[in-house]
Amino acid sequence: MNDKTEKLMRLVDTAAQEDVVKADKDLYGAMMKAYKDLSEDKNIVSVSGKLSSQINRYLLTHQYKAPKSVVELGTNCQIKRNFVPKKTSNGLFQPKTLRGR
User: Fold this and answer.
1) 3-98 architecture in CATH?
2) With CB atoms 3.0 to 4.6 Å apart as the test, which of 15, 25, 47, 64 could cross-link to 69 if both were Cys?
3) What is each CA distance from 75 to 29, 48, 51, 101, in whole angstroms?
């Protein structure tokens, strides 16, 4: 398990402890599944994408009101989802949004 996966797991764990998260069974379930998948070394981009979608759904249905830890987790998931490791000719990694331009 690498540092990025461990950081994301810590963020998930922190956000899952919030009372508002525990009260929302869909969001809490998505966080528990993400934590389990990350602990099993599943693809971090895939896990982040699914979790990000659930967090976005929560934010939309709750007038964008959420604890800071949930917002931080959502932001981190967006970064992971938009960064698919692919080396360029100069050996650097490039976000998928910049490929093909």
Assistant:
1) Up-down Bundle (1.20)
2) 15
3) 19, 10, 11, 25
Taking the model in full, what pTM does it have? 0.76
Helix, strand, coil percentages for the chain (3-state, nearest 5): 70, 0, 30
Place of tokens 């009260």: 23
- Within 10 angstroms of residue 101's Cβ, the number of other Cβ atoms is 5
- Per-residue pLDDT of 41-93, as tens digits, reads 999 989 999 999 999 999 999 998 999 999 999 988 877 655 555 555 555 54
CB 9 within 8 A of CB 48: no
